[in-house]
Amino acid sequence: MGQPMNVENNDTANTAKLRLPVVRDVSIVATLMVLGLYAGSAFLIPLTLALLINVLIIALSDRITSLTRVPVWLANIAGVTVVLAGLFVIMYILGSQATQFARSINTYEAQFDGAVNRIAGLIGSDVTSFIRDNLISIDMSYVARVLLGSATSLLNHFFLISLYVAFLMAERLAFRKKIQLAAGDPKTGAEFAAILDAITNSLQRYVGVKTFISLITACISYSVFKVLGLEYAETWAVLTFALNFIPSIGSIIAVIFPAMIALVQFESVGPFLIIVLGCGTLQFMIGNFLDPAMLGRSLNMSTFLVILALTFWTTIWGLIGAFLSVPLTVCILIVFSHIPALRPIAILMSLDGRLTEDQRASAGST
């Protein structure tokens, strides 16, 4: 009886010894990857943006082909033209009006103290003192420079991103064949193709739906800004469109900035309340009802993971990392779900523990 117990103890000890090198190697690889992402951000950010834009163009060209029955090459040209022209307009507005706003930010800071006093009767002196002590201490010029710097950086990289997109579209059809040839084994090639298909489908759905929802939100908000006569209405509309891609806090920031400008610009608090209550309610309704209804459970990401990914990618790549946090994490989740050794991590990253292929298998069995 004693010998089997010794064998079992030896197996347990060997398993523990094997796990330590694995944990060590995984930690080293993860650390090197994080350092590589940080050090190579100047190269990786334009490439990542180009890949996401390429996914959006493919989704748009496929939709054009299905609706109009035009040739694929013509649909690809139309998709590239529409997406890149839209991105150029967005970055041009940010680059032009944001520069003017950055120059006049000191004027707004000087007038903000008087504007806070206008809402003292609505919210009480204690809250007014808190706002004065905390919001006025915020260096708005620094915030404006950060936003302007990000917009300028994107504008400077626009040509490089466009070049990446052009070559990616040119090799769209040949890329799948090259994967099959590079894999050698047909089974391995099929697995790679399945991973790419899953990533492409999830990203197409996410980027397409978020672009549509953000465009609706930006158009409605822009209408409100123009009716009120808010300064730099185009800039706030573009920021509303862009910030909706940042999970959780993006929609809040999209309301705070124009509301603060309205508080300074107008003598009454009416426009401020319209933006806070009207646009805030719009963001809440879209974020809690329309967004989940259109995206459904296709992403199936844990809410905590979304916040964690937002923090991580913002720390690594700054503001642009915040925009890319969800798409990048979706890619990681899908890749992990197709690797048996990393599948438990993918299950922990998911919302309900069911991965995409599990849901498809259960749907097929029923």
Automatic annotation (TrEMBL):
Keywords, alphabetical: Membrane, Transmembrane, Transmembrane helix
Membrane topology reported for the UniProt record: Multi-pass membrane protein
Record's protein name: AI-2 transport protein TqsA
Organism: Ruegeria meonggei
InterPro entries: AI-2E-like (IPR002549)
Subcellular location: Membrane
Gene name per UniProt: tqsA
One of the protein's GO biological processes: transmembrane transport
Transmembrane parts of this sequence: 28-60, 72-94, 142-170, 212-230, 236-257, 269-290, 310-336
